[in-house]
Design brief:
By secondary structure, the protein is an all-alpha fold. The protein folds into four domains: 84 residues, MazG-like (Helix Hairpins); 28 residues, no CATH class; 65 residues, Helix Hairpins (Orthogonal Bundle); 53 residues, no CATH class.
Amino acid sequence: MDGERFAALVEVIERLLGPDGCPWDRAQSPESMRRFVLEEAFELVEAIDAGDPGALREELGDLLMQVVLLGELARARGWFTTDDAIEGIRDKLVRRHPHVFADATARDAAEVLERWEAIKRTEKAGRGLLDGVPVTMPALARAVAIGEKAARVGYDWADAQGVRAKIDEELAELDAADSPEAEERELGDLLFALASYARKRGHDPEAALRRALARFTARMGAVERAAAADGVALEALDADALDRLWQRAKAETDGRDQR
């Protein structure tokens, strides 16, 4: 990484926040920046999913801008500087990688994660095992993170089949729910079990759902185009006609994906 280029970015942000800078930037606060950080993070994830290096480069820059802007807003309030944040993460990485920066050893990635969590618990004494999982995470991603942390202390199913049986159990309890409140509770348990099943099978349920929604969106667009080409409104079609359009759209979009 070129330190001069990073310093030049900081200078641009300082100018934007200065007395003769940009009114919009000067009006921002850490609280107002929250939505932009989330948006840029999601756009970065979208670029990763798309496998587009150009978009990845752009979105990394956009997210880095948010980091620097937040650092400068914090400095203006006398909290800390961007340099302090960089020093903090550097020191943390060194402390939590003793197999790289000290004389410890690690057989595999699993042992690295186990040691990381052990060091983290020492550093944050009195903090619960799950306290570090942000409540603002998307629920499916948070379910995976909570499941992973619980698994590291032995609270987990032995294999995916155990979770699969739990899914059947939760489905039965959902069917037996006798009130809207009970139904919601059992639905939540079922979704948590599905996230755990994905984790045990080595899948990211958040990514899987995003891809499923992308497929549905593409198929729905194909259905709308086909109906428009026939000069009919979707609302005017019966279930059989809608299904025929859907099957046609599914074959069309699936074939495009395979190409």
